[in-house]
Structure prediction request, 430 residues.
Amino acid sequence: MTVDVSRALRVPLGVRRHLETPLFRNSYALVVSGGVSMLLGLGFWALAVRLFPAEEVGRTSAAVSTMTLLAAILQLNLTNGLIRFLPESGRRTGAMLRSAYGIAAISSLVGGALFVAITVGRSFLAGPGGSTLGFALLFVVAVPVWSVFVMQDAALIGLRAAGAVPVENAVFSVLKIALLVPFAAFPQLGMLGAWMLAASVVIVPLNTYIARRLLPRHAGEEPTVQSWWEVRRYLGSDYTGGLLETGFVAVLPILVTAKLGLVANAYFYTSWIVVTGLELVLFSIGSSLTAEGAHHRAGTARFHAATVRLTAAFIVPVVGIGVLIAPWLLAVYGPDYVDHGTTLFRLLLLAMPLRAIVALRLSVLRVERRGAAIVRYQGANAVLLLVGGYVALGHLGLPGMGLVFLATQALLAASVGIGGLVRRIRRESS
Prediction:
């Protein structure tokens, strides 16, 4: 006899039906995953600073940031490709997934090795006593491992099984924290080694689950992808947009440092990291919209309207509360952060509902395979932020960067057509 868990827990019928909808179920799973990863990630670094020398914590944090950036570049946009095209790949799903993993792993291995060869002795790869061969070799291996690890999430989303994503990331996060204690015996390699071993351990069982439980669902279906040339063309244009997205996130702290100095960047970065975390949640919800729209193209407008309502229910309260308690949040870092960062933090938060409109529009464009339009949006975002930020920082300081971010998102959201979006939502709700 089977037991309906939701009935056993007396979950209201309306809630059960809401959660039975893949769009909502997968979106909630990705939001939970982002929250769990953020909290456990803070726990990892909080423990690391107590177990490892400060210079090694700094070196490993730089290595992890660089590894993440290289993986994003070297996986050639295949993560977005899996989210967009796995729902249409039918019996070719397994072959597509294996090819994506293989291409990303080889590209990341070669790219990571070239990066080490070019920068060894002149970057974080040079430890307190000079170049560390073991650390450099571990970094080379880390880049392809992380590329495949990240692509697993995309595979789960594309296969409409995002419910496994928070479990995967929670296991990974807990395991890397647990490994810190025994790995503290290796000060130079311990943190990065714990990170990579935890990721490697998770890769094997998760992909076994994908191969045995998820791929058979598509075994008897005919692919609906019309042309592999069209797929490659889409991946190329969307890749350009993705690089622009990654670029502005990484470059803005560098711009602040160049204009105002390291101390000002410390004030900026404590706010920026929260905003980029919220953006990750928004794009995760958008990924669920992309997967569902690709699976059922005729329902894209309805899915879009539903996702906008869901996103508004999440982001509006978060922004409202964040704006109200901004000084108390920043007080965790010290009074100087409150004095110099509160206005900036509030302006960045106020931009996030507008950023959400743009993020969901990009998800619809991915369903429609309109790569050129994605590049236009991402390019406009990057240029306006970098040029506007360069000018505003010199005249207004950190609040100027917040104003530029808010104004840029308002312009992009207006270009989406907020009035038309509201009318579509009302039409789909009626």
